[in-house]
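Batch manifest, entry 17 of 40.
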Amino acid sequence: MPGLSSEWNNEAYVSLHLVQEMLSMAGLPRRSSYSHWYPEFKVKVPKITANGFVKETKKEVDFLIEDLGRYINFLVEVKTADTRIDNDARVQLETYLKYSNTRFGVLIDPYLVEIYQYKELQFSLVSEHTIQNPSQVQPVADFLKSFLEKIKMRTIAIYTTKGGVGKTTLVVNLAYELATQGNRVLVIDLDDQANASLSLGVNKAEEFDNASSLEEFEEIIQSFEERKEVFEFITNYKLPSFNYKDYIYSSKLNNILNQTNSYGKVDILPSSFKTRNVENLPLGHLPQKFLDKALRQSGIAQDYDYAIIDTPPSSTLSVINGLYAAQYVVIPSQMEYFSVYGIINPISFTKTVREEAENRAFILGIVPMMTESKVILHSNMKKIVAQRYPHLRIFQEIKRAIAVGKASQDRLPLSLYAEQNTGAGDVKKQFSILTKEILSEIHKRENSIGR
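Output type: structure tokens
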């Protein structure tokens, strides 16, 4: 690199002409619905005084960046041409990451970019880029954007206010279809009925099936009392000892996925009767955003490509948590009178979240569930839905079939059930098409906002 002008020895100049340009070119504007900058972000760092007391001091890191679209927070510390990145700077960044509970940090000077991860008390370099010319910012921005793309996670809430429409069936099958494409999928069960947790094999389904007395049922239910699950996840995320892996369980589908060499997986953040305790969280602490904050601050995005959120069929605080955490929402509905006219309820409730957080709870569309070709009412209701909500996509319908019920009883996705049972092929194909349509709608949305 040719000798740099003395301007690059000025931190404010490096910040303005390299760092801020890099962030903007990487698709992270200073203030938007999907990104926020926090300059001179204060980190509370404990310090032991001469008397042996612990005193809290405030240190400033140059930037905290919230990449809301990708579910990533990261710190940026700026150095100059004459104060280059060195071991002291790395130790400083490690301290900032540790005490701000932030997963990733960027060190940058006019010659070099280093990206570090603080995970499980370990500080490690995960990527670096040599800057050929700090006046040519685009290659630096491309490097940052490429890194963020590798660790981003998309979140989709499956939400309806009416029970019995096949919501959990949709959750499980969508998760499995995504996993067969090589995606790492996390199912977040926010419903205290915990049907997704049962279907995915982490809530002792066989023990429930074999229980023959009320006492045995109670014993199984109480066994969840000490388990770390979704309620603990959203209330413990600020603890220094918090490790999101303690709350996540491998689903029974992973044994099958491993055999197919798909490289995908389905894990679950499970639910139980304890999830109803979300409704008792103190309102003064903004509990409606706990799940969103926990997902962002835990660094979980690095390990998953998609999070599918199974929300309860209601308008409770659990639902609000799911919607604040969801970039996208899919609404399943039967094509019956009351179900169709009830679609306005999840749409209206979702709108209240979007009014406060524009980058959350974007409704991708509606999935007609349990339809029958010979039932004229279902066809008419689909037309009414399309006319009433012209801005929403009507996705591939899932037709009523004996195979759907039997697959649910066997706690299997339709794709797996169809391999063992003739007559399930049509429904398997419907879920496959539906998954492709949902992904297409996501890509269309992201391309329209330049993400």
